[in-house]
Amino acid sequence: MDYTQITYERDETDKFVTVTMNRPEKLNALGDTMLNELDDAVKRASDDKDVNALILTGTGRAFSTGFDLQSDNFEMGIEAWRENVLANMRRFYALWSAPIATIAAVNGYALAGGMELMMCCDLAVAAEDAKIGEPEIRHASAPPTLMMPWTAPIRHVRYLMFTGDTISGEEAAQMHLVNKAVPASQVMTAARHLARKVARIPVPGIKFNKLAINNAQLASGMYNAWLYNAETTAQLHSTPEGADWFRLLFEKGLKEFLTKRETPFEDLDRG
User: Fold this and answer.
1) Which is the catalytic residue, given 37, 116, 134, 171?
2) 266 has catalytic annotation
């Protein structure tokens, strides 16, 4: 596959690749093209016997701000929403279940679907001043996988999912959403250092230990929880409140949509 919205770069020394989301003018928003290219890149790396790890990052000011809200008319019925959410869930599952180690290098905004991508990676390094969260809940929406309960303590999950607040990379490290937070200028250095360490582990050591770790989550019900989340998300988007928000987005555009969404929280967010 020829890539138009990502780049794929093999390290010259160690067995890892860097995949960079490359839509800086859209803050690396996730549309079908980018998601299909990411799918291909993960499969390409997974099938390469000379690749043992993958760094995922973004160009510019963002890791990813989530799904591209300007890409389509999102006024859909519950059946269409179910298929939409399940399709995205399967894409994220492919990243989570890849037989190599995946490392998110969070260089800026990691919001909504972007935060989900980060959490579906095995490890994560974030800029101290990164902005991470699920702000979409403020317009009666939800993430496609709800990976957060399988990543962070439940008190933090409820806080982020009930408020739509964004947190810094430092706070994300304290909440165990990322492994470490470093100055923004050092994110890729730290991610590459981690990738080099992982890449020098014998390939079966990563593959089979990851299978065992992932199975612990699956045995605890993770995949069924994702499926349940797909159902509740489809229902949520089909409520009158959900439909009204997506109608506003389609009729008035993203700028007015975001202004109306965030205005009620401005004084509280400042506090």
Assistant:
1) 116
2) no
Rounded Cα–Cα distance for residues 194 and 219 (Å): 28
Catalytic residue among 37, 134, 136, 171: 136
63: nearest Cα among 129, 140, 11 = 129
Which amino acid type is present at position 256? E
Please give the mean pLDDT across all residues of the chain: 95
Instruction: Please check whether residue 130 is in contact with residue 224, taking contact to mean a CB–CB distance below 8 angstroms.
Output: no
Question: What's the pLDDT band for 197 if we cut at 50, 70, 90?
Answer: very high
Single-letter amino acid, residue 134 = E
Residue 135 lies in a domain: yes
User: Which structural domain, as residue segments, surrounds residue 145?
Assistant: 6-270
Residue 244 covered by a domain: yes
Can you give the CATH number for the domain in which 57 is found?
3.90.226.10
Q: Per the structure, how many domains does the chain have?
A: 1
- What pTM did the predictor assign? 0.95
Answer whether 14's CB lies under 8 Å from 67's CB.
Answer: no
Question: Is the residue at 1 inside a domain?
Answer: no
- Told to judge if 136 belongs to the known catalytic residues of this protein, a careful annotator would answer yes
Q: Do residues 19 and 38 touch, judged by C-beta distance below 8 A?
A: yes
